[in-house]
Amino acid sequence: MALKKAIPGMSFLGPSRFRSPGPSPALAIAAAVFALVLLSSASAAEASGMVKGGEASSEASGEVTVGGIRLYYEISGEGEPLLLIMGLGGHVLDWGWVLPERLAEGRSVIAFDNRGSGRSEQPPGPYSIEEMAEDAVGLLDALEIGRADVFGVSMGGMIAQEMAVRHPERIGRLILGATSPGGEASVCAPPEVQAYLEPRLDLTLHEALWWSAPAGYPQEFIDAHPDIVERKIQANMAHPSSLEAYRAQLAAYRAFDIGDRLEEIRAPTLVMAGDSDILIPPENGLILAEKIPGAELRIIEGAGHLFWISHPEETVEAVVGFLGGG
């Protein structure tokens, strides 16, 4: 393992790091802030500034049928393909307004909504990470892409791990962000933080996402950049998941356990994590980098779970450098 940057004074990020921005009903939450989307207005995409001139900023978009369901996708840029896989409840807008555009300067970037999220079909559960990995491969098949680099974050990183083990021939380089191997090998967040994953409908989604913002960012970032937090919240709210579909994804996320199969990953791999991530503690990044042969580790200082939103320049630099300049 090539260790890019050590975590200073690393210790378990427990409840002392978990702070509410203000008074609220105890544990009131409606979906996790790290890309969870439940029961809200679909008009917020334009308000968020992620839509230009009334049209999506992607160069191409569409739907394909994979595994009996419709998957929504967007493609930007030209060059070698890079597949982006979003996390729990998230959709293409949850990659933000910097990263996709910058990455598309040197390659063809494909983003899509997992089953149960965004503008993809939201069938009844149960779902599994294995099934969603097959969805990703099916999307590549439908787009006639034989091999792609893959960047997955959070639950999307779990999907990417499964894809790398099941279909190694389909992945060039692999980037795993803010994710874990699941099961007994992983380091779990404390119950107070895991509570953010449970839907609570006693607040509006907007109120709940603001209340839960410390799960995605350090409090210092929230205080300094409320405009960025709000913009990301509006993206969360743009294309809602049904409660049933979200819970099916959540069950798949919790059941994921890749175990000893990490050693089967042969793709050159970069593991990324924020040193202040309380949802999926950065110790998980160390575990992944140690178990995946030849993996590199990049820790982003001062970043929480949503490091690609709070620290987009550092993320672009790491990804482009690892992929060889685009």
Walkthrough of the structure:
The protein is an alpha/beta fold. It has a single domain, classed as Rossmann fold, CATH 3.40.50.1820. It is 31% helix and 17% strand. A nine-stranded mixed sheet has the order 1-11-10-9-8-6-7-5-4, sandwiched between helices. Helix 2 links the parallel strand 6 and strand 7. The chain is globular. It starts with a strand and ends with a helix.
How would you state the average pLDDT, rounded? Answer: 84
Runs in which pLDDT lies below 50 for 5 or more consecutive residues are 1-57
Proper CATH architecture: 3-Layer(aba) Sandwich
The tally of beta strands, per DSSP, is: 11
Instruction: Compute the CA-based radius of gyration.
Output: 18 Å
Q: How many individual domains?
A: 1
Strand content: 15-25%
**CATH superfamily annotation:** Alpha/Beta hydrolase fold, catalytic domain
CATH topology: Rossmann fold
The CATH class turns out to be: Alpha Beta
Number of helices: 12
Shape: globular
Structural class from helices and strands?
A: alpha/beta
The end-to-end span amounts to 23 Å
Which secondary structure elements does this structure contain, and how are they paired or packed?
Blueprint lengths: L1 E2 L40 H4 L3 E2 L2 E2 L3 E7 L2 E8 L4 E5 L13 H5 L4 E5 L16 H14 L5 E6 L1 H12 L4 E7 L13 H4 L10 H7 L7 H6 L1 H11 L6 H13 L13 E6 L8 H9 L4 E5 L6 H4 L1 H12 L3
